[in-house]
Amino acid sequence: MRPRVVDGLIIGAGPAGLAAGLAFARTHGTAIIFDSSSYRNEGIKHMHTVPSRDHSDPYEFRRISREQIKSRYHTVWFENTTITHAVRKLIKNDCLGFEVKDNNNTTYLGRKLILATGSRDVFPDIEGYKENWPSHIYQCLACDGYEQSGTPIGILDFKSPMQSHIVGMALNFDKRVTIFSNGPISNEAPIQQALKISKALGASVDERKIKRLINNGPSHEQGVTIEFEEGPSVSLGFIVHRPATVNRAQDLVEQLGLETGDPAMGGNVKVMDMFNETSLRGCFAAGDTMALIKQATIAMAEGVKAGVGAGKQILEERAEDAVKALE
Questions:
Q1: What is the pLDDT of residues 177-215, one digit of tens each?
Q2: Strands (E), the chain
Q3: Which of 3.40.50.1000, 3.50.50.60, 3.30.450.40, 1.10.357.10 would CATH assign to domain 124-242?
Q4: Residue 277, φ and ψ in degrees, nearest 5
Q5: Residue 285 and which of 21, 193, 215, 319 are 20 to 30 A apart at CA?
Q6: Based on C-alpha coordinates, what's the Rg of the chain?
Q7: What is the pLDDT of residues 70-121, one digit of tens each?
């Protein structure tokens, strides 16, 4: 039977949350994994750079992971619900822990809390962008570019010096690479240096304002067409663009008062040690919630670290209580 107070409340059932749950299961720790069924990779058909699961369906990956935890272990449970409130409070005698509530106002109690809620992409205000995501717009060439090789590539936006790196990588997939800046490119020195590098590598530049994006069909062979406010349109196999990201559960981050990073970099939750504890004792973060590099394999590793950290802290607190009881 599930105890009233579990060791860990894990919010999020993506790679990070599932890995954290396994860390609890392997040490007989009790935990609840909350699955809102909202994922950043919604609509993605394949996941990549995951050893033994390369080119697998992410929905199938999550299904198998859940089934393995449910069938093999008996101290970790799943709740298909969305957590809307979280607070640190006394949960048992003088034990500080966490109380969370879901959208049905059901309450759950745990000694430790792990936020594995991930991030959410904020799409630019361009007509047709949403309709081409994720079928023809990819934020990571390493994750999704390989299968689209051999077709013309567009790099949308040029507001970061890092864009020259993206251009260099894109040229590995096809030599027809064009930067579509959607307006004049900044004169700031780092941006101009990146632009100089991009041109030297072989990329062309189109600064026209974009009117809309048209989805021409399901694959890169049909691709996407960019219509501009002036001049002829351009058809491509796919577009590379990394939209801004925000914490998917920013409301919980604010309720808990967690320290976060630069909003321009996604406002990721800051962690204070190798076990991913946040600025609030007993609260840990994992995966895209705290990692700047947002990738499935990395998320899994961070989930294990958070789960181990929470378990380690529980054992330390139990040891302290045992010593006090003898005094």
A1: 999 999 999 999 999 999 999 999 999 999 999 999 999
A2: 5-11, 31-34, 76-79, 83-92, 95-102, 107-115, 119-122, 137-138, 153-156, 177-180, 204-206, 210-215, 224-228, 234-236, 238-240, 244-247, 283-285
A3: 3.50.50.60
A4: -75, 140
A5: 319
A6: 23
A7: 999 999 999 999 999 999 999 877 789 999 999 999 999 999 999 999 999 9
